[in-house]
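Trying the structure run again after the queue cleared.
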Amino acid sequence: MKITIVGTRGIPNRYGGFERFAEQIASRFADHGHQVTVYCRRAFTRPDDVYDRRVRRIIVPSLHEKHLDTWVSTFFAAVHVAFSDNDIVLLCNVANSPFAYIPRLFGKPVVLNVDGLDRKREKWAGLGAQVLHLCEWMSSFSSNQLVTDARAIHDYYLAKYGSESLVIGYGSEMPAGDYNLNGLNLESGRYVLYVSRLEPENNPDLVLRSWRKVRSDWPLVIVGDNPYDAGYIERLKSLGDERVRFTGAIYGDGYWALQKHAGVFVFACEIGGVHPALIEAMAASNPVLYLDTPENAETAGDAAIRYDKSEADLAAKLQSMLDDPAAREQLAASAKQRADALYRWEAIAQKYEKVFAELVKK
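Done. Tokens:
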């Protein structure tokens, strides 16, 4: 099949979960002999990019501004793909649901992956949240097939809109290779890792405040950025003590080196379905602490330790884990086993291919 992926910032991944998804799923489709195209935003591409060259990139204009970037780029991509010879469109992001009709008008079926409930993010307060709520409603009927990445999100769409969706999660595999911490000035197995975009609903402030209560000489490594609010990052830095290291966003080999060598991974996101950073930490054999939400509990199950949204609970469980090497070892093995069983990219790709084949046949 000729498969097109629309709605992400593109490949290689320089932003977050959907970009990682596009990068990985496109390569698996290419492995299986499909012709794959990924639409990319100009601001997130470079001439010397390293990516799977079997995958065709089409770079579209965008406005590198929080409220318009996604819509502008996806509109151009949707119009372009409508006039192409592609068989199927995989559209990512609930905000892009209004554009599902453009390829469909030209006979191209659209599969829409909505991810989580984006409108609840603090950065979309006010009018932005209302627009995303409208997009959420439209996503319940605008595509040929709605995909949710967690049972909790599936149940939400069914209860609120009466819309049935297909649950297909994300993948996570530790890439083969010898990943080292060169240049990062960290000791393998002796640091706590937090990875996320630095936004309020991902609770980096909760992690930083809790860390103040933990007695340890391990560093806390905060990996992530916020391209739209530098002031928020400065406020976070004021919460950290001398044991905290802010690295900014790190991708590729550097990211996997940090995952591979972490002593503990703490996950604090509360909005969304299956979070890539969480399952990638599990795939990298990390003992994991996660914020107790239905989606996170569905993802990690009993293979990790949950905590409630309080400094005291997180600090206590961090301290307990740091003081118990045997518990860390056991949790690391459980996390790896669960990731291998449930979140492999090959299985995820095959699920999408089955949906694509059925829609193209129709």
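The chain is about 40% helix and 15% strand. Worth checking whether this holds up in the mutant runs.
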